[in-house]
Every structure is written in structure tokens, then in C-alpha cells.
Amino acid sequence: MKILVTGGAGFIGSHLCDRLLDDGHEVMAMDNLITGSVDNIAHLAGRSGFSFIRHDVTDYIFVAGELDFVFHLASPASPADYMAYPIQTLKVGSLGTHKALGLALAKGAGFLLASTSEVYGDPLVHPQPEGYWGNVNPVGPRGVYDEAKRFAEAMTFAYRRYHELDARIARIFNTYGPRMRSDDGRVVPTFIGQALAGENLTVFGDGSQTRSFCYVADTVDGLVKLMESDFAGPVNIGNPREMTVAEFARFVLDTVDSSSSIAYKPLPVDDPKVRRPDISLAREKLGWLPKISLEEGMAHTVEYFRNRRK
Ligand code: NAD
Ligand code: UDP
Fold first, then answer.
1. pTM
2. Is any atom of ligand 2 closer than 6 Å to the C-beta of 149?
3. What does DSSP assign to residue 58?
4. Ligand 1 proximity of 214 Cβ (cutoff 6 Å)
């Protein structure tokens, strides 16, 4: 197939490009590099079947020739990033999703929206099944991302119903791995960077809030299985192994074998208190479940950040 990946120079997008090329597809990555980097796709330069277009998907998207599938991943994703770029985040979730859907419709292509567990907000149901509608503060600082993604989901399913577009939605939970930016502010690269530098790990709040971390190869496999299925979702893609942020800090200290300690900092506004995916639907409809343990995935990720420091 000929596949467009918006956000293809980002963390997950670049791994998705790798996987799709390995599977024999032709891949076009499109990105405006607001939070991504060509470093993430530099190894693909010159590879047969791969191309890169620098473009902001909130503007009209032109792609010559046929297109079979659009993965729409373009969006700042780290809380620090989307709070630094609030208007761009709202625009890419709304206007960018509209443009990407319009392109898919014009080409008769399939479409997959990379949505997020943030549509559940600070959840009152735990773990989160897809049938839960969420608890989001629209005017809080995280609202720019959460509401953009909720709008993107509504737009995607409107195209599905009204235009009969073959459109799907994946709700991705915290994903980690090589190619995260060391300064993106997310907990995984932040803690690893601090542990490697011998600095204290900055745990926000009392560290009792929970997250569930999925290795990027598993997340990408879930996205590809959703493309290959005839299921529209929304479907959760995440690893149900849940831990508190304080437990995760100790896990990182052990993995890096660091003598750093922990420094407690204020909890950001609206930081979700718990997060864990119910993945029954992904298991049943896609035959997908994550395979890579936190121990194995973190070993790869720590190695990546160690090498970058050299
Ligand atoms: P990322 O910031 O590394 O990648 C996003 C990419 O989108 C970047 O390369 C950025 O430059 C690009 N982009 C942003 N706005 C754009 C625009 N207007 N036009 C073109 N390109 C644009 O983030 P990521 O972690 O790889 O996330 C990828 C997608 O997955 C996002 O849609 C995010 O919301 C979703 N997601 C990620 C996670 C996670 O844990 N990483 C969790 C849930 C959802
Ligand atoms: N967090 C933390 N210290 C940091 C960065 C993040 O304690 O230096 C916490 C954050 O408050 C949240 C969790 O780690 O509870 C995950 O944060 P991240 O930014 O990775 O993503 P989120 O799941 O909030 O989107």
C-alpha cells in the first residue's frame, strides 16, 4: 500500500514508518517539525519507498497520485509541548484532522486517528474502557490537547457516518522508547536523563498518581493491527501494567543503577490521578496485546539515552 503518516518525524510516527517500510509498504512521512525532528527519520533517507514532506497539516494537504491509507499522528503530545503550543495543538487536532480526513476521502483511502487516553481526562472509572466518556476540564491547561483530540474523534466518526469513510480511532496510552526527546518533559525521558546525570528525580505531587507504560514497538503493532482489521474502534492501545509515579522513579533508579534520590515538586494542574487501559476490546477485535515487558523496554530506552550522552 501507499501510506501517508502525518507526524512521521515524531517519536511514534518514525517507528511506525520503520514498521510499515519493513512490512513492504510505500511510506510518505509528513511533518512540520514543531516537536519532531529529521534525526528520527535520517536513517530512512534514500531508502526505497520512503519520502518526507515538510508541511503543516493545518494547511491544505496535497499528495500526488494514489494513496491507500492515512495515519494521522500529527500533534504535540507531551504535556510540556502542548502547553507551550496551545493554539497549534488545538489547530492540528481540529483543522489538521479535517484536512487529513478530506485527503483520505478524496483519495478513497483508509484513515486512522491517533487519539489518546487523555480523552478520559482525570478518569472516574478505573481501568478505562472505551465506553467511558471521560472527565475533562475544557478550560484547564490540558484542555487544549484533550478537547482537540475529542473534537478529532468526533470529526473522524462524522466522516465515517456521513461520508462512509473507512475511518478508525486508536486511543493510545503512555508510550515510551528510543527517539523520545530528552527534553520533552514526559516522565520517562525526564527520569532517565536525571538518573544518568546523577540529578534528583523530580516526582510531581506525592507520586501516588498512576500510569501504565507501553513500549513503542507494541503500540506501533497495535496501530498496524487496527489498520489491517475491519474494526473501527475507538480501541485502547496500551499496556495495563500500572504503577505509581513514585514506584516508577524507584524502578528507573534500579534500572540505571543510579545513586540519585527523589525531589518532590508540585503536581501540575489537572494531572490525572490514575490511568490504566482496559484492553479487552483490542485483544478480542485485533488479537493484540503488548508483548514487551517494562524491564525489557526500559533496558532498550536507557541504552538509547546513554548512547546519546556520549
Ligand atoms: P511527537 O511530538 O514526538 O510527534 C508528533 C509529531 O507531529 C511531531 O513530529 C510534530 O512535529 C508533528 N506535528 C505536530 N503538529 C503538526 C502539524 N500541524 N503539521 C505537521 N506535523 C505536525 O509525539 P508522539 O509521542 O510521537 O505522539 C504521536 C501521536 O500519538 C500524537 O498524535 C499523540 O497525540 C499520540 N499519542 C501519543 C502518546 C504517547 O505516549 N507518546 C499517547 C497518546 C497519544
Ligand atoms: N511526572 C513527574 N515528574 C516529571 C514528569 C512527569 O512526576 O518530571 C509525572 C506527571 O505529573 C504525571 C506522570 O508523571 O503524573 C506522567 O507524566 P507525563 O508528562 O509523562 O505524561 P501524562 O501521562 O501526564 O500525559
1. 0.98
2. no
3. T
4. no
User: What's the CA-to-centroid distance between 260 and ligand 1, angstroms?
Assistant: 31
Per-residue cell: 4: 501517508
For residues 228-246, average pLDDT: 98
Strand partners, 69: 3, 110
Give CA–CA dist 179/114, Å, rounded: 18
257 in Cβ contact with 213 (< 8 Å): no
CA of 261 to the centre of ligand 1 (A): 31
Task: Kindly identify the ligand whose nearest atom is closest to the C-alpha of 175.
Answer: 1
pLDDT tens, 99-115? 999 999 999 999 999 99
Q: What is the DSSP string of 108-157?
A: T-EEEEEEEGGGGBS-SSSSBPTT---B--TTSTTHHHHHHHHHHHHHHH
User: What is the atom index within ligand 2 of the atom nearest the CA of 194?
Assistant: 8
Beta carbons of 74 and 86 less than 8 angstroms apart: no
Please answer whether residues 282 and 168 qualify as being in contact, where contact means their C-beta atoms are separated by less than 8 angstroms.
Answer: no
What residues are paired with 71 via a beta bridge?
A: 5, 112
**Encoded amino acid at 139, one letter:** V
Q: Provide the terminal-to-terminal Cα distance of the chain, rounded to the nearest Å.
A: 39
Domains of the chain: 2-177+215-239+277-290 (3.40.50.720)
DSSP secondary structure, 193-262, as one string: HHHHHTPPEEEETTS--EEE-EEHHHHHHHHHHHHHSS----EEES---EEEHHHHHHHHHHHHT----E
2-6 and 69-72: which strand pairing?
parallel
Measured distance CA(74)–CA(294) in Å, rounded: 26
> CA 130 to CA 120: how far, in whole Å?
9
Cell (9 digits) for 101 = 480526513
pLDDT confidence of residue 309: 84
pLDDT of residue 286: 98
8 A C-beta contact, residue 76 and residue 57: no
